[in-house]
């Protein structure tokens, strides 16, 4: 379906004068446009209908149309590439004459080829159209889809999934794990939680882990997946435990020995999530030694035999009807802990839906997201109820769960269904970077750029948000900033998506040795296999119709030869260490169709000169490589939207010609580039700009250029050492109203809080702020506290050098959404009043030892309002001794520990200095 959406505008473009096509060819193109528009309408109906409701003829016809559309797009793109691309950007003298002569000779051949292709395509389209008329596939009926975007995101998702109905089970497991006499506490304990997929096993063990993990000397939480790479898994456990093994040569047995030695006499707590079979458990268990230090292990599995083998089986129970109603109402209405439906008319159908979901949280969350998009129409709700199948109330099996998930999938609009199918390229339990996913969607042509006020990436973000709201993906706050930069796909959703993707030949996944190299046409390849059986086959297999190849590190030995591709648009080799494998990028410049190239973490030393041939390239990511200089000819890639390089990679002044850039990470500014800073102001489409300063020189044109970039949403300036000379250099800059993230704390100091921050309505999107303000006033803290979307704050002041001993207060109602806060350089600690920062979970502060002693109470208590932070989970304190005696440091440390211990949440405490 998505290919027809892209193809029709391309056919329209062929009719314009610059291609100078023959009259007969133009007539054929007009015929194709009309026929394909009708096919698109029919295909929309078919793709919106659950596969179980389609007969075989419908499926065959739809498959034929999709494959035909791919072939047409390949031929049209090839013609356009030959007409517009594949030529060096700047030629001079004799070379220019030669290339112009060759162009004149080639143009008739190119146009003759497209004429032949159009005749062939026209014949195939007629054949498929006649088949549609014979079998009347237009009779398929589907229902219209309504779309709403709800930006509640992470907070509501966590509330819905982490709190409802698990407190009792969490506390029961904690009692089993840590209650008992001294002797039992010294003995090891294992609990294995078993239950159907979607019941919330991971959510439950995560709640237990967060509650008690701080009591153990070392701890780890690992996800296993269905076909784990045991070496990678064992290394992951070591890394989480704090033993980062850099030796890549260690085999499985050596890693097991390393783990056993490391944990020999330690009190450890390890969660092993989602074990599928007994051999995997045996290997993991072998690596975790039995000792008398009181270790604890929790395993989760769907397999009863695995649970019985592991021991300590704990059956995961479905939610009660009471908690099921709370979860449903929360997802639909946003209500907290309300069992009663706010709409009496919907109470009866709500109960029916709850009964069908049988207490499975994933089913309830998915259906709630769908119902929220339907409004409060009883008939629509009954339609959902009648469509999700029967049997859930009697049997918790995968097929019934899939019915519920598939209904939510088919309720999505066509463009979102395409984006969901694309999730199948990622392995199970993979944390998907939001930006990477959206750039892939863009390169594949899935984003419908119809809203001129938004960039194509911003439209992709709205797709991402909608998929979270529909519970098709799960948000991940990887950096604990309260902002979603990653997502996961629940394994049951991934199971459904892979099944649908396979049926449509949308993505071909090679993840284990059971996959054979059939004669099927491969359009998109996802290589996830860690075995090496197929290496030689890949090297000799031609894949002229493959348009996307994504290779994960475990399949590095299977990277196909680049010369085997003819119409490749996406090449993603992220995390594949090509420097060790000696993989050649020699033929990279022949991939004329390429839109997306991700070589991050491949550690290559250089890009081939022929990269200049990739004139249609939109995304180039070479971060975490050994590339020291970006080739000058990259400046000829005028379609580039995203350029990512190392913060130390040197770029030339020619980069200012890339006027389409929306993201530039990083821009390494040395002495030479600093002299040409006026060029930066030409990149007016930039949304994301990260600057790395490698010079002590200063040019006021940097601020002038930054002031011209009014679409900037993320600005990061890093790399310059501190000092008097850096104070006030950014004072003249005024942030644009769409700013989301500002990071300048490591580079430049504002002399005072910028005046533009006084207008909270001007900064409604600012969610992350890391700045250094040399002199801060109490009123400035109030200004920051009024920022409506701020979730992350890193605030540094220079009060020690200035001798400012003022006591600062954060009052009630301030920082309503702040999740993560770092306060540096306040000589007298900031005090949080009751009602301040109600969502603050992590606090990092500097404390000056003597000042802490002065405000400590007679009982050794230390009151700067920690008890008023109702969501506090983590505290990190960096002591500044300032010549204090050892006993003074100990007293201050005791005061801080006491403040943390009496907090009702029992937050974890880390002390440095």
TrEMBL record:
Residues 425-497 form the Disease resistance protein winged helix domain. InterPro entries: Apaf_helical (IPR042197), Disease_R_plants (IPR044974), LRR_dom_sf (IPR032675), LRR_R13L4/SHOC2-like (IPR055414), NB-ARC (IPR002182), P-loop_NTPase (IPR027417), RX-like_CC (IPR038005), Rx_N (IPR041118). CDD domains: RX-CC_like. It comes from the Eukaryota. Coiled coil: none annotated. GO terms for molecular function: ADP binding. Residues 182-330 form the NB-ARC domain. Keywords: Coiled coil, Leucine-rich repeat, Nucleotide-binding, Plant defense, Repeat. Residues 3-90 form the Disease resistance N-terminal domain. Pfam families: LRR_14 (PF23598), NB-ARC (PF00931), Rx_N (PF18052), WHD_DRP (PF23559). One of its GO terms (biological process) is innate immune response-activating signaling pathway. Residues 545-909 form the Disease resistance R13L4/SHOC-2-like LRR domain. Belongs to the disease resistance NB-LRR family. This is AAA+ ATPase domain-containing protein.
């Amino acid at each position: 379906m998505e290919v027809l959406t892209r193809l029709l505008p391309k056919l329209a473009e062929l009719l314009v004068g610059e291609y100078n096509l023959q009259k007969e060819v133009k007539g054929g193109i007009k015929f194709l446009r009309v026929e394909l528009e009708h096919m698109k309408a029919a295909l929309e109906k078919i793709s919106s209908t659950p596969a179980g409701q389609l007969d075989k003829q419908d499926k065959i016809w739809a498959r034929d149309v999709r494959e035909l559309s791919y072939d047409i797009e390949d031929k049209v793109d090839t013609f356009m590439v030959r007409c517009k691309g594949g030529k060096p950007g700047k030629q001079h003298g004799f070379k220019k004459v030669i290339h112009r002569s060759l162009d004149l000779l080639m143009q008739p051949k190119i146009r003759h080829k497209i004429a032949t292709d159009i005749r062939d395509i026209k014949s195939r389209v007629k054949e498929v159209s006649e088949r549609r008329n014979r079998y009347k596939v237009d009779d398929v009926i589907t229902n219209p889809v309504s779309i709403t975007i709800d930006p509640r995101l992470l907070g509501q998702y966590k509330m819905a999934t982490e709190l409802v109905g698990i407190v009792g089970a969490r506390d029961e497991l904690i009692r089993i794990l840590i209650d008992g006499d001294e002797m039992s506490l010294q003995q090891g304990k294992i609990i294995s939680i078993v239950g159907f997929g979607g019941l919330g096993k991971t959510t439950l063990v995560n709640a237990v882990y967060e509650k008690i993990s701080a009591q153990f000397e070392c701890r780890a939480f690992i996800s296993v997946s269905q076909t784990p790479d045991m070496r990678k898994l064992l290394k992951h456990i070591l890394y989480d435990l704090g033993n980062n093994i850099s030796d890549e040569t260690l085999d499985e047995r050596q890693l097991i020995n390393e783990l056993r030695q490391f944990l020999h006499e330690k009190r450890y707590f390890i969660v092993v999530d989602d074990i599928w079979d007994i051999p995997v458990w045996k290997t993991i268990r072998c690596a975790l030694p039995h000792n008398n230090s009181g270790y604890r292990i929790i395993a989760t599995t769907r397999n009863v035999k695995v649970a019985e083998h592991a021991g300590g089986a704990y059956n995961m129970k479905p939610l009660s009807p009471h908690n099921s109603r709370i979860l449903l109402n929360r997802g639909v209405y946003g209500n907290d802990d309300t069992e009663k439906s706010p709409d009496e008319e919907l109470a009866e159908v709500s109960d029916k839906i709850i009964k069908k979901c049988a207490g499975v949280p994933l089913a309830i969350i998915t259906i709630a997201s769908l119902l929220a998009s339907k409004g409060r129409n009883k008939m629509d709700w009954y339609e959902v109820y009648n469509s999700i199948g029967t049997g859930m109330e009697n049997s918790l099996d995968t097929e019934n769960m899939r019915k519920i998930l598939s209904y939510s999938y088919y309720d999505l609009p066509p463009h979102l269904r395409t984006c969901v199918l694309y999730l199948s390229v990622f392995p199970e339990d993979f944390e998907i970077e939001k930006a990477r996913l959206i750039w892939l969607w863009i390169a594949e042509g899935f984003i419908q750029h119809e809203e001129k006020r938004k960039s194509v990436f911003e439209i992709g973000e709205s797709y991402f948000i909608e998929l979270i709201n529909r519970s098709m993906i799960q948000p991940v706050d990887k950096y604990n900033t309260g902002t979603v930069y990653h997502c996961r796909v629940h394994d049951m959703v991934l199971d459904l998506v892979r099944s649908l993707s396979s049926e449509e030949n949308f993505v071909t996944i090679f993840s284990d040795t059971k996959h054979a190299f059939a004669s099927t046409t491969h359009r998109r390849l996802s290589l996830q296999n860690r075995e090496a059986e197929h290496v030689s086959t890949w090297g000799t297999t031609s894949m002229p119709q493959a348009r996307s190849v994504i290779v994960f590190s475990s399949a590095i030995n299977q990277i196909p030869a680049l010369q085997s591709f003819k119409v490749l648009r996406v090449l993603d080799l992220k995390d594949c260490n090509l420097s060790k494998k000696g993989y050649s990028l020699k033929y990279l410049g022949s991939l004329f169709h390429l839109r997306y190239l991700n070589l991050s973490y491949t550690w290559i030393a250089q890009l081939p000169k022929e990269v200049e041939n990739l004139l249609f390239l939109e995304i180039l990511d070479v971060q975490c490589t050994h590339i020291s200089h970006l080739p000058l000819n990259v400046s000829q890639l005028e379609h580039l939207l995203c350029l990512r390089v190392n913060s130390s990679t040197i770029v030339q002044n020619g980069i200012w010609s890339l006027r389409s850039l929306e993201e530039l990470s990083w821009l390494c500014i040395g002495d030479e580039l600093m002299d040409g800073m006026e060029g930066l102001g030409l990149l007016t489409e930039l949304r994301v700009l990260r600057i790395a300063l490698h010079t002590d020189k200063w040019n006021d044109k940097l601020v002038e250029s930054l002031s011209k970039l009014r679409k900037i949403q993320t600005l990061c300036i890093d790399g310059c050492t501190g000092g008097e000379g850096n104070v006030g250099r950014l004072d003249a800059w005024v942030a644009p109203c769409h700013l989301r993230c500002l990071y300048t704390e490591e580079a430049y100091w504002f002399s005072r809080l910028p005046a533009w921050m006084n207008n909270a309505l001007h900064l409604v999107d600012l969610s992350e702020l890391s700045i250094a303000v040399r002199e801060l006033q109490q009123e400035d803290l109030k200004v920051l506290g009024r920022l409506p979307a701020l979730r992350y704050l890193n605030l540094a002041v220079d009060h020690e050098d200035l001798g400012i001993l003022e006591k600062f207060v954060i009052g009630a109602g301030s920082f309503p959404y702040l999740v993560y806060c770092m306060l540096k350089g306040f000589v007298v600690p900031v005090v949080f009043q009751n009602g301040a920062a109600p969502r603050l979970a992590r606090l990092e502060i500097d404390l000056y030892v003597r000042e802490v002693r002065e405000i400590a109470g007679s009982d050794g208590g230390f009151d700067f309002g920690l008890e008023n932070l109702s969501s506090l989970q983590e505290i990190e304190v960096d002591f500044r001794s300032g010549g204090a005696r050892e006993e003074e440091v100990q007293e201050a440390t005791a005061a801080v520990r006491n403040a943390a211990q009496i907090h009702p949440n029992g937050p974890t405490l880390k002390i440095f200095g």
